Amino acid sequence: MAYLCVAGHRLEYEWLHPDGQRALAQGPVLVFLHEGLGSVALWKDFPQRVAQAAQCAALVYSRYGHGKSDRLVGARSVDYMHREALETLPGVLDGLGVSDPILIGHSDGASISIIFAASNTVQGLVLMAPHVFVEDITLASIAQARTSFETSDLGAKVARYHDHPTATFRGWNDVWLHPDFRSWNIESMLPSITAPALLIQGEDDQYGSAAQVEATARGVRGPAQILMLPRCGHSPHVDEPALTIEAIAKFVRETNR
How far is CA 58 from CA 18, 49, 72, 145, 220, in A? Predict the structure, then answer.
């Protein structure tokens, strides 16, 4: 594990190489962007398995307030994903010498990928359970997560992957449930995206409907393909890892051809 300072915050990151060795990238780089409660550790071995299957180097990092990165101080603003995409992510990529990446984002990370790609060059986008607008099903599940955090062992589970679990959870949960967040929408950014995109969503996703990937595919100007996975919830890389890895590796090979 290593650390990089971006916008005054220390962020943890890790390089992964197809042969299992950690090394700097010498070719196309897969950059993994985690979910709202994600981190380097919570990805587990998924990035390494994708790197091996796609024969590409991979970069994984924990956003500010997540994992072993600096503790979040203060509440997040409604535009926090825009800030991540337009300020922090460029700093991470520039600081580590990555250009024209293939972004692999999950949930919040997929939305951040969309915002970044609307104004920056990428080779491709893998968007797992992206959000481009706010749905009732999303808010209901996030509200349920708050109840679980306060009444169950969810806090202990979050603490396995984050040094500051309460700040991490509140930083994600509070902003999504803020009344001003109900109107959050990034559909207007989609026509600026010309890179190829692979959209992956579980049919049983408790945080969003198929309308999210359908709107994304309609909105982008580049080629887009949708993969809906049966018997799969919000995390395709957890519920259906083999199918997800196979689809991503195929997409990366076709994109790099």
Answer: 8, 10, 25, 30, 25
